[in-house]
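Now read this:
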Amino acid sequence: MRKLIPILLILIGIGAGLGAGLFLRPAPIIPVEDESSTDGNSTAAQNTPSAETLTEFVKISNQFIIPVVEKGRIVSLVILSLSLEVTSGSTELVFAQEPKLRDGFLQLLFDHANTGGFRGSFTDADNIVILKRGLKEVAKRVLGEAARNVLITDMVRQDS
């Protein structure tokens, strides 16, 4: 009987591990589809996304660090991480144009900071909408129609 207990524990552990692995496995990856461009008259068009409607997400490689200046001194730093939603197959274009994107994003972020966008309640919905709209305009200017959206994945303000 004592020799069976370790074997039973091992079998129970293996069974629990297999069950947990099956239960917790990640869902299959399904491409994101832009609903605004599907043809409502055709069920085939609704069920089969075209290459133009598929999107990819590209993380901009480094964070953006923006100083918030008041009366000639830095009172806080805002740190942002951004990702871009682009049309399928545009990832290489994003990486090729990343220096231009970073330059445009930084200029916009500095302007936003200088106009008070990162002071007070900087995560207010109105401030975020204004910021995201500007970031999207920069992305469209650099990438053209390949740019779908700009996602703010992290945003932190560190006060001095």
Q: What stands out?
A: Residues 37-48 have pLDDT under 50 and may be disordered. The radius of gyration is 24 Å.
